[in-house]
Design a protein that fits this description.
7 strands; two-stranded antiparallel ribbon; single chain; single-stranded RNA binding
Length: 138
């Protein structure tokens, strides 16, 4: 019998804390980091925002969260109390996330954020040249 007991139809369902599963599935390096991220309220279980790290998840739940400028959508396939190797951790979930952008597309997006060389703050020599120019006008 599981911690939560039988369901209405008599079958038992295994449940697990959300923060513990995120840690075991290697999405976060420490359990406290997983807890902090859940408390922000930006994580969803089956489309519902969750703010409590103790929220229970079951096999089949779909988790949606953002991490490192990427949106993860994962379906829980198995529960594990222990953090194992990466290969074992990848077996705990199915990745339903949209394909990440290619590096070329990301560079094109950031192209507009770049500045021309020398277009930033003037150097000391540039400031002196500007002072000379402005003092000639007077």
């Amino acid at each position: 019998m599981s911690k939560d007991g039988p369901t209405k139809d008599g079958a038992e369902t295994a449940r697990m804390r959300l923060d513990k599963w995120l840690w075991a599935a290697r999405f976060y390096k420490t359990r406290s980091l997983a807890t902090r991220e859940v408390k922000t309220g930006r994580l969803r279980i089956n489309g519902t925002h969750v703010k409590k790290p103790s929220a229970a998840i079951v096999v089949g739940d779909v988790l949606t969260f953002a991490k490192a400028e990427r949106v993860f959508v994962v379906r829980v396939l198995a529960l594990s109390d222990q953090r194992g190797p990466a290969i074992v951790a990848q077996g705990l979930y199915e990745d339903l996330s949209p394909a990440p952008e290619s590096a070329k597309t990301a560079q094109e997006k950031n192209r507009h954020a770049r500045r021309e060389a020398g277009s930033g703050r003037p150097t000391k020599a540039d400031r002196r040249a500007l002072d000379r120019f402005l003092s000639q006008k007077e």
